[in-house]
Amino acid sequence: xxxxxxxxxxxxxxxxxxxxxxxxxxxxxxxxxxxxxxxxxxxxxxxxxxxxxxxxxxxxxxxxxxxxxxxxxxxxxxxxxxxxxxxxxxxxxxxxxxxxxxxxxxxxxxxxxxxxxxxxxxxxxxxxxxxxxxxxxxxxxxxxxxxxxxxxxxxxxxxxxxxxxxxxxxxxxxxxxxxxxxxxxxxxxxxxxxxxxxxxxxxxxxxxxxxxxxxxxxxxxxxxxxxxxxxxxxxxxxxxxxxxxxxxxxxxxxxxxxxxxxxxxxxxxxxxxxxxxxxxxxxxxxxxxxxxxxxxxxxxxxxxxxxxxxxxxxxxxxxxxxxxxxxxxxxxxxxxxxxxxxxxxxxxxxxxxxxxxxxxxxxxxxxxxxxxxxxxxxxxxxxxxxxxxxxxxxxxxxxxxxxxxxxxxxxxxxx
Length: 415
What we know:
single chain; four-stranded mixed sheet; four-stranded antiparallel sheet; 17 helices; 11 strands
C-alpha cells in the first residue's frame, strides 16, 4: 500500500514537472518560416527595389517581438540582410534544413530547462525565439526573451551545442542585467551563465576559450587583470579582434573560472547557484565580494582597481597651434602628448559638454608618432568662438588600458 502511494506521488510529481517544463519553454520559430519565404523571393530577382519590398513585407513586417529585439540589439538594417542574402546563398542553402527543424529541439530544451529549475528553484519562465540575423550574434537575451541567431547557431558545426546555447541564454534571462558596467562585470555575468549551463547539461563546455583558459590560467589572468575595469569589452568578448592569445572570447573563461571557484568553495552548493545568478553585477561592492570570495585573482579587487587607476594613461597636453588664417577660417594643428606610449590602432573623439554646436571637428588625423607617445591632427575653426573636443577612453596604451578622458576647451581669438 505504501509503495503504491509512493509510486503515485512520484508519478504525479513527474507529470507536474513535465507540464511545468512544457509551459516554461515557449519556443517561437515563425521568424524562420518568414525569412525563407522572403529569401526565395529575393534571390529570384535582380531588381533591388523588389528585393527590399520582399524583405519588408514577407519578413520584417511580420517579425515577432523576439525578431524585432534581435534586430535592435545588433543594429541590423535592411541593407545588412540583402547583402548577406545575395552574397552568401551557398551558406544559407546549407543551413536551411537545420533551421526548419527548430521545433524539434523544443522537447530537449524543455528537459534541460526543468533541470535548470531543479538547480535554481526560483527560475522564471522565458520565451525562446529562433530569429534570423546577419551574422552578428548566435544568441543573446532581451528581458525574458532568449534570442537565438539561427543563421549562426544552427550551422552544422554549432548544432550539437544548440541546447547548451539555449540554456546559457536562458540563465541570462534570470539575471538582473545583461549589460555590465565594465569588463569584469560583463565577464562575470557570462561566466555564471556558462558555468551553470555546464551543470545543467552534465557535460563540459565545448567553447575553445574555456579549454585554452584552463591550460593557460596564469597568463590569461595576468593579462585580464590589467584591463578588467575597462568600460569596453575589447577582444575579451564578442570579438574576432587580434590578441596575444590567438583565441577569441577569453572573457567567458575568466567569468567561468571565477564562478567555478566560487561554487567549489561554497559549502551550500544550491545557495551558491542562486547567489551567482541573482548577483547584482553592476553593484561594485557586491561584485568585488563575489570575486574575492572566489579567489581567482592574486589580489583583492580593490587593490586591482587602485592599481588600474594609477596606471591609466592620460593626456599631458593638447593645445591647438594656429597655422594659417584666411577667408574667415583659422587652420590649427593640435599635437596631443600622452603620459605613455599608446596603441596606435585605437583612438576616440567625442563631443564636449557644449555639444555638437561647439564641437572641434578633425579635418585630418595626421597620426601617431613612431613610439605612440604623441598624436597630431588638423582642424579648421571660426574666429571668436569656443570649441570643445573630448579625447575619449577609446585611446588605449600597449596593455589595452583605456585612457582617462581629456577635454580640449579652446576659444579662438577675434580675427
